[in-house]
Amino acid sequence: MDLHREMSADIAAERESALDLLGPSAASVRAAVAELLEHRTFAYPLSVLPVIVHAVETGTPGPAVPLAVVHELWWTSACYLDDLADGQAAFAAGGLGESEALLATVIGGIPLPLLVVQSPRIPEAARGALSAEIVRCWITATEGQLRDLRADMGARRDAVVTAYLGKSGAPFSMVTAMAAQLAGRTHERVELWREFGNVFGILWQLFNDQQDILTGRDEDLANGTVTYLLACAVEDADAGSPDRILELHAAARHSLDARAALTAFLLAPEVLRRYEEDISAFRDRAHRLLRELGGDEAYSSVLRDLVDRASPMLLQAREPLSGVVAAQHR
To answer: Can you identify the CATH homologous superfamily of domain 136-330?
Structure first.
């Protein structure tokens, strides 16, 4: 948060410079992308992640500010496309019409980030590798999103992790790897940063999943999303219960009663114990990678703190499942 406040003016200026890259003949495109960016604000300042990684490697955050803008552009585009898939596009597009917002999303998410990393602000030797990262990220993230939309991956923890590596791991590993490449680091070190970004992406997705339940939004239940928590419930269920959980999961798209019953399964003590153990394992893995990477301690400590803040166990067990089921039949 402190670093974001310190660098927010630089990031804002870089954002304006990025929009200027669209050229004088694309005034309508510039205005649409700018409105999309203005409408989509983020609760957490994770755009500074590549800045921190670059500073861990070099002690200097400034040169990675263009990558912070790439991060913002990518997530703005991805979030709008996610809203579109969930039928919320009109709400998410602000003052833009749905078609206008979709066009702005395409430009803001793919060509514009490529223009940023091809700009004179980026050393010529790094431009090709950074461009390839953006393309790779979109392919991997789209694969994860398609698995999510089709719900054809099965309610297994390993399958959900694969989907999460696409949905959240890909964009975070993109910017961490890009920051290391911009710093001129070896392939081996870049790959360690990529792995850290993947693990952080899983942790962040688990954090978001918990927030969805705690806030009462229940978007995952309404959309039929197969979450890691659901996979824990299915894998740890007694004989016969997995089928019941999956039945409730299918019904929860349209039934509040089914959502309540499914939530009781999800928040059972034994399910949450497994869930918490796995969150701890991912957090420990992220910390091991940071210890191996080392670097500038002032910024490494920021990343360690970020990992801890991204991996709390927020959910609490509710009344025993038998009590909920009994109550439903009274």
So the answer is: Farnesyl Diphosphate Synthase (1.10.600.10)
